[in-house]
Amino acid sequence: MQALVIHAPGDLRVEEFETAPLGPGQLQVRVRCGGICGSDLHYYQHGGFGTIRIKEPMVLGHEVAGVIEAVGSAVEGFAPGERIAISPSRPCGACSYCQQGLQNHCLDMRYYGSAMRTPHVQGAFRQQIVVETHQAHKLADSVSDGEGSMAEPFAVALHAVRRAGPLLGKRVLVTGCGPIGALAIIAARRAGAAHIVATDVGAHTLGKALKVGADEVVNVAEDPEGLKRFTADKGSFDVLFEASGNARALVGAFDALRPRGVIVQLGLGGDMTLPINTIVAKEFELRGAFRFHEEFAIAVELLNKGLVDVKPLISATLSYRDSARAFALAADRTQAMKVILNFD
Question: Per CATH, the architecture of 155-288 is what?
């Protein structure tokens, strides 16, 4: 079968890739769709991010959905022909963090398409893959393959909302409206947020934020003082989801966040300098949100029941053979949110 293999920045090749043998408790899956993630873009554009660099050829991709082709001899509850979303998260289950229910902090995690360890963990941008049954989540007939591939980033957003605590009736600010920020809007609304304001520097992304549930948007490139009206009486917002990874976006929201507000940092942007005096004086709670675990199943359930709609975020679907154009489009926030690769 063919796969998309990254060798160096800008060097993404379609290559033959061997499918692992099917074990008794495993599923052989024909991958149909895969979403291009920000980490995939970093590998493609820069060869990695931070200290994480490509040291050997690696199949990209971790946001995928497909159809079961074959089941292992010991498999129950799955059958060929069933469509599934595939969780890319494969914690060991045995380390101290897994035993505490913190599988996203597993000491021996094998996450698809990651150069965090060597040998690298090969990704899922390939026509065929063998997975464990615990990674497979059935998709309803009403959910497209493209929507199914959105389960992974949506699970990231659901985990962030869980980290924020109860949102019922809360006023929420989301800074950065790329795919994760937009999905955080969907997740926050589903969790009961009463009012959601979103900020970004691009009209296209802000338009999508409105489509998926934001009550108001602020283009901080055109209106740098756009959040000033929310700063009276020490601030208006109960919760901030910071999804841009930009220090200016984070600090710029502090005046609009009420005392004892919760900050959930989703975006990755390297080291930041923060005004500690403000954090202390307003008693902010700064919380990180990293990946997910059980939220993947919740994401698929919400999609299957039609309780959330991620379709507005899917900008285009292109063949994996046209990966250069697909990655260029995915990097252009003036035109695209989520670009899907078709592996049929």
Answer: 3-Layer(aba) Sandwich (3.40)
Complete edge-to-edge strand list for the sheet that includes strand 171-175: 216-219, 195-200, 171-175, 237-242, 257-265, 285-288
Two tokens, residue 259:
């005392």
Q: Which H or E run contains 196?
A: strand 195-200
Q: State the pLDDT at residue 298.
A: 98
Q: What are the sequence ranges of the domains in the chain?
A: 2-150+310-342, 155-288
Type of residue found at 249: A
Contact 258, 284 (CB under 8 A): no
Per-residue confidence (pLDDT) for residue 12, from 0 to 100: 97
Contact present, 244 and 267 (Cβ < 8 Å): yes
Identify the pLDDT of residue 53: 94
Q: Read off the DSSP letter of residue 74.
A: T
Which pairing describes strands 63-71 and 26-35: parallel, antiparallel, or unpaired? antiparallel
* Encoded amino acid at 222, one letter: E
Q: Is 57 left (phi over 0), alpha (psi -120 to 50) or beta?
A: beta
CATH class, domain 2-150+310-342, is alpha beta
Q: Cα separations (Å) of 316 from 36, 253, 262, 264, 340?
A: 11, 32, 35, 29, 6
Q: Which two tokens stand for residue 245?
A: 């990874």
Q: Average pLDDT over the chain, rounded to whole?
A: 96
Write out the H or E segment, with its range, that includes residue 25: none
What b/e readout covers 230-248, taking b as 16+ CB neighbours within 10 angstroms?
bbeeebbbbbbbbbbbbbe
* Positions of the chain with pLDDT lower than 50, given as ranges: none
- DSSP character at residue 95: S
Q: Closest by alpha carbon to 113, among 51, 37, 45?
A: 37
Q: Is the model's pTM score more than 0.70?
A: yes
Instruction: Sort strands 52-53 and 48-49 into parallel, antiparallel or unpaired.
Output: antiparallel
- Check if the beta carbon of residue 118 is closer than 8 Å to that of residue 320: no
